[in-house]
From TrEMBL:
This is Polyketide cyclase/dehydrase/lipid transport protein. It comes from the Bacteria. InterPro entries: Polyketide_cyclase/dehydratase, START-like_dom_sf. Transmembrane segments: none annotated. It holds the Pfam family Polyketide_cyc2.
């Protein structure tokens, strides 16, 4: 089966520091994204719940997914892998922050392989919608923190 690739981008007037503040704290994600509730499962190696190795669970509708932080480069990049909850293999998401004028360009991308043949298109469609909502939500929430 082929690896599926999806991405969504947005630009915000918020600085990379302001965006990173929300992005790097997964407990905030449900407040600005289409995701439902958040629960920390286990902290990363450094004791930070959102550090490398940190596992969190998100419940959205009937979906309960667990994700692990696999890369964390403050102010620039956060990557996580899906551990369970969707019939996908090798799911990895990368969020990249790039200064853009006085603001920040946010690019959220992911790759995955569907477990069942013929389902790649539907997961690409559904997850693209989630990524778009997540990126636009983060882009809107970051400057709102200033007010």
């Amino acid at each position: 089966m082929r690896t599926q690739r999806i991405a969504a981008e947005a630009t915000t007037e918020a600085t990379p520091e302001e965006v990173w503040h929300l992005l790097s704290d997964r407990s905030t994600w449900p407040s600005w994204s289409p995701l439902g509730s958040h629960a920390g499962v286990s902290p990363g190696a450094d004791g930070d719940p959102d550090g490398v190795g940190g596992i969190a669970e998100f419940v959205t509708g009937r979906h309960r997914v667990r994700e692990e932080i696999v890369e964390r480069e403050p102010l620039h990049r956060l990557s996580y892998a899906l551990l369970s909850g969707l019939p996908l293999r090798d799911y990895r998401a990368v969020v990249e922050l790039t200064p853009s004028g006085a603001g920040t360009r946010i690019r959220w991308s992911s790759t995955f392989v569907p477990e069942r043949p013929g389902t790649g298109w539907i997961y690409r469609l559904a997850l693209t919608r989630v990524l778009r909502g997540t990126v636009t939500g983060l882009a809107a929430a970051a400057p709102a923190r200033r007010r």
